Amino acid sequence: xxxxASAPPRVLTVAGSDSGGGAGIQADxxxxxxxxxxxxxxITAVTAQNSLGVQGAWELPVAAVRAQFRSxxxxxxxxxIKTGMLASxxxxxxxxxxxxxxxxxxxxxxxxxxxxxxxLLAASALDSVRTKLLPLATVVTPNLDEVTQLTGVRVGSEGxxxxxxxxxxxxxxxxxxxxxxxxxxxxxDLLTDGSAEHWLRAPRYDNRHTHGTGCTLxxxxxxxxxxxxxxxxxxxxxxxxxxxxIAAGFALGAGxxxxxxxxxxxx
Length: 267
Prior knowledge:
Elements: E1 10-18, H1 24-34, E2 38-50, E3 53-59, H2 62-75, E4 80-83, H3 89-99, E5 106-108, H4 126-133, E6 139-140, H5 144-151, H6 158-169, E7 175-179, E8 187-192, E9 197-202, H7 213-226, H8 231-247
Parallel strand pairs: 1-2, 1-4, 4-5, 5-6, 6-7
Antiparallel strand pairs: 2-3, 7-8, 8-9
Helix pairs in contact: 1-7, 2-3, 3-4, 5-6, 7-8
């Protein structure tokens, strides 16, 4: 009789569902499987979404979000948590309250808009993200549009990324990862805790199929933290994984296709 295998590290995503499978909960769980952890989910919203954009979005009730979280955490336990689309101030505050009762690394992806430019966070929720959610973050991972939403800082150069990171750190996260993918040239990100700086660079691939990059990166960081990496180690490994996934991204439908979460498994 074979001996049962021990459980892999457990990672929980608290995010919205992407019916097209490229971002959100679906991207998170694919990333977690690819990186060797057991992924679990709390769904905060359901979207009707495809390669062309978001056709509709419906928040789940607070009671449903709270019940999913308690069901997983109280029985199975978690070793890292990642948050994504939280949609409203009420859901942001609910999730912040739940996270405050845990003591595991937490990656906050402050999702504001989809790859297609569709709003995924109510403007009225921004203050709750700043004051309730960011102080709980081990790492917060905004892109440049989300940096501007949260801080008012407009980033046009690498020097501006340092200014943006300082503005975000004032809200209380331990580390900030400012993603500079919207700048021209190399894909450069800045990771800092206010003392140490880590500049992460990767080639910019000639591939428009990049749906789900933010969700994938945050989930990869959480997966690596659950496996025991330090924050700089986790972010560097996640950056390498996402760069490979972007390079292997493929066309689906008539619009922007997804990154390939299984790219390492296909080699």
